[in-house]
Amino acid sequence: MTTAVTSITSRNPADPADVLLRIPAPGAFAAADAVERARAAQPGWLLAGAAARSAALGAVAAAIDAAADELAALAVREVGKPLTEARAEAARTAAIWRYYAQAPYEPTGVVHETAAGSGLLLTRRRPHGVAGLITPWNFPFAIPSWKAAPALAAGNTVVLKPAPEATACAQRLAEIVQHRLPAEVFTVLPGGATEGNAIVSAADVVSFTGSTAVGQAVAREATARGVPVQAEMGGLNAAIVLPDADIEQAAAHIAGSIAGYAGQKCTATSRVIAVGTALDPLREALSEALRALPVGDPADAAVMCGPLIGENARDRVSDAWQGLPTLVGGTVPSGPGWYAVPTLVEKVPQGHRLLREEVFGPLAALLPADDLAHAVRITNSVPYGLVTSVHTADLNTVLHGLDRLDTGMIRINAPSTGVDFHLPFGGAKESSHGPREQGRAALEFYTSSRTYTLLPAGTT
Q1: 408-443 residue pLDDT tens
Q2: Is the pLDDT of residue 1 over 60?
Q3: How many domains does the chain have?
Q4: Where are the alpha helices (DSSP H) in 101-192?
Q5: Which of 171, 198, 200, 165 is nearest to 187 (CA)?
Q6: CATH number, residue 300
Q7: What are phi and psi of 424, to 5 degrees?
Q8: Which residue among the candidates 85, 165, 184, 266 is catalytic per the annotation?
Q9: 430 SS3 class
Q10: What are the phi and psi torsion angles at 75 (to 5°)?
């Protein structure tokens, strides 16, 4: 999963001397035991019925709303999320639980006519049992929630292993959720690779968000066991700007997608593809937009680009821009905290790591394209396929020119970042494995379909 650890230390990335917690890792036995306790609790949680599950999830939503300021402050301190984004995540987290609080009342099957004679044929969706969830640090409340809430709504129990860097956020979420649910229905288990491996080896359904290498390992292990698995992994997302686009608007959207939360989102823009005559005006507008973005203390509501999550993350970003022509940025501020200035580079040679790897920081490459078909080929030339943003005033282009994009999500005249939790989320190629998450797709993933044949007694 992640590196094996014997203890967990969480630090403030804006001030590494500020330690939020230091606790021992529970180990593989504790992880397996948590799954077994969740498995024992699952039948009772399912039999509690739709009304009880709906009320519990609704109570969680209300409690998250009530604690929103506290949760936002904790996300700022533990994972360096800028305050404005942290407040938005807290609100979104409550909305996720509120949305799935209605799911227990949704139909779980369909009735069919028999081919001949009397009787009934019907399908019914049932929960898998224990959902093992492995989540990253960058959305410490929203991602665990959009995995756990649909799993719980469908009648599963949950064991969640958060990233070590977001342990305090996960523990606070657990306090809120556990006070509204029966015992052992929702468990947070801190740790690293040891605990993650144990959960994947024991759970009845597995959902992962994180790095590509780890996600592929999770998918292999779960598939070998024959349990359903989904893995959301990396992105190397492009923004395509056509000559007829509103260049100023496109530059503002793209700058936010490059540098917002220091580029630490799987949907962040890391390649900007300017088509034809859009190149020169976009270069100027995007450079200006990036220079204007506030960088600094994430507790300042005006700041958009805070620190990276750790020293290694900062060094990975600064190493990636070395030797490239820099239009904006390309510096690391002095002082405490793991910061990197939002950076735009150009004339990136083929085969450079920026064109094949996810760097996960406030860094993007400006690339020229002759026409839309060329831009599509550039977009598709990487191993990932999560999201592409396209900026144009021509609806015909949108309807007929983009069907060759190998990405799971296409956003027109909008930033690449930002997703709707009531719609399916996921990508193509190495960005995703398995079914989509969020929306109704999540309810389908956390359940399996049973087919029933009901015939009158004595039927021959």
Answers
A1: 999 999 999 998 999 999 999 999 999 999 999 999
A2: no
A3: 2
A4: 142-153, 167-178
A5: 171
A6: 3.40.309.10
A7: -60, 140
A8: 266
A9: coil
A10: -65, -35
Q: Which two tokens stand for residue 429?
A: 């190629």
Q: Give the whole-angstrom CA distance, residue 102 versus residue 99.
A: 6
Annotated catalytic residue, options 78, 195, 232, 346: 232
Residues 6+ positions from 89 with CB-CB distance below 8 Å? 71, 72, 75, 81, 139, 141, 142
CA distance 258 to 424: 23
Confidence (pTM)? 0.96
Chain position carrying tokens 């600094």: 296
- Verify that 187 and 305 share a domain, yes or no: no
**Cα distance between residue 247 and residue 281, in whole Å:** 7
Over residues 53-58, mean pLDDT:
98
Q: What is the CA radius of gyration of the chain?
A: 23
What is the rounded distance in angstroms from the CA atom of residue 389 to the CA atom of residue 373?
A: 15
Residue 184: active-site member? no
In this structure, what token pair is assigned to residue 192? 């690293």
Query: 267 and 205 share a domain?
Result: no
Tokens of 436: 């989509």
CA distances (Å), origin 405, targets 13, 112, 387, 401, 427:
36, 38, 9, 9, 11
- In the chain, count H helices and then E strands: 14, 20
**In sequence order, which residues have a C-beta less than 8 Å from that of residue 80 and are 6 or more positions away?**
12, 13, 14, 262, 298, 306, 307, 308, 309, 338
What range does the domain containing 244 cover?
237-412
- Whether 357 is a known active-site residue: answer no
φ, ψ dihedrals at 215, nearest 5°? -60, -40
